[in-house]
Structure formats: structure tokens, C-alpha cells
Amino acid sequence: MSKPRILFMGTPAFAVPALQGLVRCGYPVIGVVTQPDRPQGRGRATAPPPVKILAENLNLPLLQPEKVREPLFLDTFRRLAPDLVIVAAFGRILPGEVIHAPREGCINIHPSLLPKYRGAAPINWALIRGEQTTGVTIMRMDEGVDSGAILLQEETPIGPEETFGELHDRLAILGAEMLIKTLEMLAAGTVRPQPQDHNLATLAPRLDRDAGLIRWDNDCRTIVSLIRGLSPVPCAYTFLDVKKLKVFTAAAEPATIAEAPGTIAGKTPGAVRVTAGNGYVLLKEVQLEGKKRMAVRDFLRGCRVVPGQTLGLDENAPSLYPSPRRGREG
């Protein structure tokens, strides 16, 4: 049986291993759709998305529509007439025609154990909420938000110190491996789609600009989970003498406390101890505004930090964003 002609849709680094796997395994990729080049970094210079770079290196036909509902893209889509559309973190809601027109449908690689953590930031939220396991779901897309039938799902433990960046890279590789396995199962006719229980759905919404603000009156483990869930980007942060201080790695130390939350309670060559709601957070890797990311031992050589200093904003600072809510999707 011949392999399906695939139109691949993806944008960030998470999608790169999946596209590499398809080409390596000999699947005919008739086109790659990714988002337009965007301003990135501190200089806001226009840069191509990772999937575009890979597609050009592989000499694959490339499309970068501003909107996937625009007539020009849909005309091109009809002309290509793919047998199957594969989506990996494309970043846009697809029109019904793209989902339903291909003979073998449209499948998506989603980095959570659906129906948990539907939405734009499932890896971040799994870490922020202190999950001990997560996984990848290969699903057949419908017009809801990550609500389609499950084709394949695999669970994996989350390491006790694993950060968003580390878990992201690991799930991207797992997702690529599962994609090839799913395609082989589809060809053999052994896939048994399982509908999701929408009543068990939780949402993982896009992280807003204030998502990383550390509230020092929170539980110390909650704060460390936030730091892990946002490291290295967009990164949790606090303020030191009105300058933003990003925190990349930290550890929780539950204890009875006497100091007010946010107070620097001491330091060692490898960490700065900050008071939280029920213990201490040990800051291990940070970046002060205008400086480079560095280990605390290096940070302390060039920045005066003394016990009794206070980190953070005043009590009128905005509260941490809400928990993912349960609800029916799709």
C-alpha cells in the first residue's frame, strides 16, 4: 500500500522532529505550511520559524499564509489535494475544509494526556500545576479545541527538576516517534479511535504577559513549579531594587518562617534563600535586567544582595493567573 501524500503544518521547534521523522521514513511530504516570519528577540529582527528553516534545508515546498482561511491558501490547498494533513503546533485554528477534505483526514500531535490540558500551553501548565506525569496524544482533528478522537496516547513521568525547555524537547521527540507509529497503524488498519470524555477536559490557555510574576506569599513548592514551568521562556520573574530578576532554576525548602514573604533570608555560594508563604525558595540560576543569565554564585560576585532585602512588587501587584478550568470543549 502506498504511503499517503502529506501536507505538514507546524511552526515552532516542537514540530521539527515530526517533520524530520516523516522525511526520514520516506513519507511523501508534498508541502509544508508554517506561519510567516515574525520579529523575535530583544532586537525584534524578523526571523523565520524553525519549521521554515528545516523545510528549506530539505527542499520541501513551503507556504507561509498570513491566514489559513484566505482564498489564495485554500485554492493552493485544493490544488495540492493531500491525502492526509499532519499538524504539530501550527498555532492557528484550521478551517473545516482543511480538517475534513483529505481522504485520510487531519491528525494532530498534542503534548498532553488529553482531555487534560487542551489549548496553547499544555507543557507549561502541566509543570505549573505540579503534575508528576504527562504524555503525548495523537488525535484525529475535529473543529473543536483539541477535542478529537484519540488515535494513540503514551504517558511519561515528569522529572522532579525537569523544566519546560527540557520536557518540551523530550515530548517533541516522543511525539515524532508516536506519529510514525500511528501512520503505520493506520496503514495496517489497527487504529481504534477513542472519543474523549469532554467532562474531564481541563484548559491550558495561552500564557499572558504577567504569567511569570512570582507571588512570594504562595507555597514554596507552587513557586518552584511556576519557575520550572516557565524556564527558559517566557521565564518566571520578580524584582530586585525595581529591576526585573528572571529566575530559571530554584528549589523548595519547606520550613517554619519568621520573615515576611519575599525577604532574602540568607545566601550560600550556590543559592539565595527567599522567604515564601510556608518555607523558602532557593534561587540557583537568575538573570538581572540588562545582564546575562548566570548561576547565582556568579551573580553574587557582581550584585550586592543582603539578608533583609525584599524581592517583588507591593501588595497591590496583580494576582497570579487563574487555574485551568474544567469544561466541555468542542
Structural notes for this entry:
The chain is α/β, with parallel strands linked by helices. 25% of the residues lie in helices and 25% in strands. The longest helix is centred in the middle third of the chain and has 25 residues, at 164-188. The strands form 3 sheets. It has a 7-stranded mixed beta sheet with strand order 5-2-1-6-7-8-9. It has 2 domains: 6-200, Formyl transferase, N-terminal domain (Rossmann fold, 3-Layer(aba) Sandwich); 220-302, Formyl transferase, C-terminal domain (Methionyl-tRNA Fmet Formyltransferase, Chain A, domain 2, Roll). Strand 6 (84-88), helix 4 and strand 7 form a beta-alpha-beta unit. The protein has helices at 16-24, 50-57, 71-80, 96-100, 122-128, 164-188, 220-229, 296-302, and strands at 6-10, 29-33, 38-40, 45-47, 62-63, 84-88, 106-110, 133-140, 150-157, 236-240, 243-254, 264-268, 271-275, 279-288, 294-295. Helix 1 (16-24) packs parallel to helix 6 and helix 5 (122-128) packs antiparallel against helix 7. The chain has 8 helices and 15 strands.
Sum up the structure in keywords.
330 residues; alpha/beta; Rossmann fold; Methionyl-tRNA Fmet Formyltransferase, Chain A, domain 2; 2 domains; 7-stranded mixed β-sheet; 6-stranded antiparallel β-sheet; 8 helices; disordered C terminus
